[in-house]
Amino acid sequence: MSENTPGSANAYPKVGPIVISEIMYHPDWPEGGSYTNNQYEYIELHNISAEPVTLYDSETGEPWKFTDGIDFTFGADPPVTIDAGGYILVVKTPEAFSWRYPSVPAEIIFGPYDGMLSNSGESLELSMPGDVDSQGGIYYIRIDRVVYSDGSHPENCPGGIDLWPVEADGNGMALTRKVPTDYGNNPDNWTTAAPSPGQ
């Protein structure tokens, strides 16, 4: 929550400082491409704050990581920092991504990640290190989560209606967050648009 509200209604969910802002989960195949479709997947992260954010916790000595959807841990030496208002890309295959999006600076591209984004939808979660238990195990704190869908699975959605747009399902479009500072795990805050990684 954005603030503690004991004994009263919950406050609005805390958003940021880093949010998942664009998801290319089912890329189409580009003319001249030499990789399989899933190799062009990417996830865009956006720093919505007015300060740089380093994806590393100095108390635990551990970096941030994705805790659901894909398997990817950010580097610790040196740690990754996203500038105020800046973007980075976490990509399935850096070579494929850079071939398809050559204007994206190499310094904001990170990957590869293990696993792949489900074409039918799944939970995608970014977390930071939190408390350490007595055995040295680290608890992770969720920073942002999006449980997206391809728009064709009403059986998995509240009320039996899938509100996610279908155009991102293999038709060359990306899921794009409408308002970065609004709650991300809500299909009303997502639309489809032409891919614009890093912008």
What does it look like?
It is a single chain. This protein is mostly beta strands and 199 residues long. The protein contains one helix and 14 strands. The strands form four sheets. The protein has a six-stranded mixed β-sheet with strand order 10-9-2-1-13-14, with no helix packed on it. It has a four-stranded antiparallel β-sheet with strand order 7-6-11-12, with no helix packed on it. The chain has a two-stranded antiparallel sheet with strand order 3-8. The protein is globular, with a radius of gyration of 17 Å. Mean pLDDT is 93; it is low at 1-5.
Short structural description:
This protein is 4% helix and 31% strand. The chain is mostly beta strands.
What's the β-strand tally? 14
Helical residue percent band: under 10%
The major beta sheet can be summarized as: 6 strands, mixed
Mean pLDDT over the full residue set: 93
Give, in spatial order, the strands making up the sheet with the most strands: 10-9-2-1-13-14
Q: What share of residues are in beta strands?
A: 25-35%
How far is the first residue's CA from the last residue's CA?
Answer: 28 Å
